[in-house]
């Protein structure tokens, strides 16, 4: 659990529309700190709190609207922990030249944010409210989200502050782009903060204390998150390798005793995310790619198990461990591939799901079981594609075929409602089965689900890596269909061809 003095509160959405939208009788999106509808029109959002008016203030309606008060008007800015709650209204009547307008300085800003510019406070508010929700499987109201403890670090570690701002800004870019709104300012802010974070982190690494290494790992992993939000491409592989090298230099148990519990929990889930990125990135990397070898000495299963309650993709730790081993197999490793298949098929994921520590009592455990089974079948499909001779040597066993595993993945995917909060963890198995199938209806079904998760799921921002995964899947189809026209489709192994490609997106 996160220390109460370090954790940030979970901000609930306003119960009413902002004052601007109420006056204009418009539907408000109730965004905090400012309504996005007002922001997109260039208007100053008046917020959601109570509007205060001073005695003898200028009348804005009725018979007294043209009379000028002798008392100046003031504007009060009242801040909550991380967002602006309400603003006073400037009178609409004209002011005489000798009337002085002076803002009343009644600032109630979180001490952690007092040195930030107003625009940066908006990004911090967006990070706390929305980005943190995207980074976990589900942001339960009765469970503390470890990512919110990052706010306790922004005043002590300048590189954490900048990468937090960068991540929040690029998150806003994707949201505004998906809604057809302009996003130039947010994009400039995102790239500027990312560059500043890189420079500050590089300087800090030159004299980094051992106890601060987990904090540096957090920053490096958020560079990967930035890439995932933007497109899933970029320098993610370099960042994964850098994080792995840092992890190898950390004596985990000794350092955990020296850092606050909230930061230790944050480090656990960030390291788990990094390992997940490493495993899934390695799955499509070429066999000669050594950039992702920095994690070979890390106990993947134990690290992932500590963060299982928050894991974004709901991946069973043993499944990722198996996938990591499968990604290193050659096409001749039939015996090892068969052993991995037997190990996977013998696992009881229902028992594992029901024993995950730290889950909310209201968590949907049966959906988690379906997702785990989908991941299992997709991993079995991966093994069969990585070692094709395994299927040919197992002709008597009808369960060890790419077709049977494809059916299992599709069945498990169909059992998870697309609007469910946990559905955002289904991109990788959907990509695997979508790329594998030749049935046009099944292709369109997979494509439709990925599109809905990307743009319509209320529990996840339209992260760019989902769009890149869709593009990769469509390219696989184009290659398979082109070869089919020339009679060469039956011998095509799309996984082997994808591994041979020089560049691909990180799909999580």
From TrEMBL:
GO cellular component terms, A-Z: nucleus
Single GO biological process annotation from the record: positive regulation of transcription by RNA polymerase II
UniProt KW Transport keyword: no
Annotated ranges, domain Zn(2)-C6 fungal-type: 17-45
GO molecular function annotation: DNA-binding transcription factor activity, RNA polymerase II-specific; transcription cis-regulatory region binding; zinc ion binding
CDD domains: GAL4 (cd00067)
Protein name stated in the entry: Zn(2)-C6 fungal-type domain-containing protein
Species, as recorded: Phomopsis amygdali
């Amino acid at each position: 659990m996160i220390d109460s003095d370090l954790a940030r509160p979970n901000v609930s959405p306003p119960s009413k529309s902002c004052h601007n939208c109420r006056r204009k009788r418009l539907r408000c999106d109730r965004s905090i700190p400012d309504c996005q509808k007002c922001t997109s029109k260039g208007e100053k959002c008046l917020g959601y709190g109570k509007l205060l008016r001073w005695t003898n203030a200028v009348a804005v309606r009725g018979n007294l609207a043209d009379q000028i008060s002798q008392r100046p008007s003031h504007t009060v800015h009242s801040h909550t922990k991380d967002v602006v709650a309400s603003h006073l209204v400037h009178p609409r009547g004209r002011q005489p030249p000798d009337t002085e307008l002076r803002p009343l300085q009644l600032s109630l800003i979180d001490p952690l944010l007092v040195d930030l510019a107003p625009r940066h406070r908006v990004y911090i508010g967006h990070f706390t409210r929305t980005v943190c929700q995207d980074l976990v499987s589900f942001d339960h109201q009765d469970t503390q989200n470890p990512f919110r403890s990052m706010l306790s670090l922004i005043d002590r570690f300048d590189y954490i502050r900048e990468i937090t701002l960068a991540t929040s800004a690029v998150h806003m870019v994707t949201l505004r782009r998906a809604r057809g709104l302009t996003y130039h300012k947010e994009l400039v802010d995102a790239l500027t903060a990312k560059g500043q974070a890189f420079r500050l982190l590089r300087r800090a690494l030159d004299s980094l204390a051992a106890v601060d290494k987990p904090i540096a790992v957090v920053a490096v992993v958020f560079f990967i998150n930035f890439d995932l939000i933007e497109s899933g491409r970029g320098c993610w592989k370099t960042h994964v390798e850098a994080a792995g090298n840092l992890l190898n230099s950390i004596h985990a148990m000794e350092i955990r005793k020296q850092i606050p519990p909230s930061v230790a929990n944050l480090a656990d889930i960030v390291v788990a995310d990094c390992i997940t990125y490493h495993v899934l990135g390695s799955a499509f990397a070429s066999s000669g790619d050594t950039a992702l070898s920095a994690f070979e000495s890390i106990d993947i299963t134990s690290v992932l198990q500590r963060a299982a309650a928050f894991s974004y993709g709901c991946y069973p730790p043993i499944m990722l461990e198996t996938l990591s081993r499968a990604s290193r197999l050659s096409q001749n490793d039939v015996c090892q591939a068969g052993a991995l298949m037997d190990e996977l098929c013998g696992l009881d994921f229902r028992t594992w799901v029901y024993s995950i520590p730290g889950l909310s009592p209201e968590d949907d455990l049966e959906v988690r079981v379906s997702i785990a089974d989908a991941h299992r079948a997709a991993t079995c499909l991966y093994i069969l594609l990585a070692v094709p001779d395994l299927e040919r040597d197992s002709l008597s066993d009808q369960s060890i075929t790419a077709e049977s595993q494809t059916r299992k993945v599709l069945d498990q995917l169909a059992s998870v409602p697309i609007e469910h909060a946990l559905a955002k963890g289904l991109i990788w198995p959907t990509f695997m089965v979508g790329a594998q199938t030749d049935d046009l209806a099944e292709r369109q079904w997979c494509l439709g689900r990925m599109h809905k998760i990307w743009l319509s799921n209320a529990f996840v921002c339209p992260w760019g890596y989902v769009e890149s995964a869709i593009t990769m899947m469509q390219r696989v189809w184009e290659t398979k269909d082109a070869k089919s026209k020339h009679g060469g489709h039956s011998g095509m192994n799309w996984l082997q061809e994808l591994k041979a490609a020089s560049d691909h997106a990180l799909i999580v």
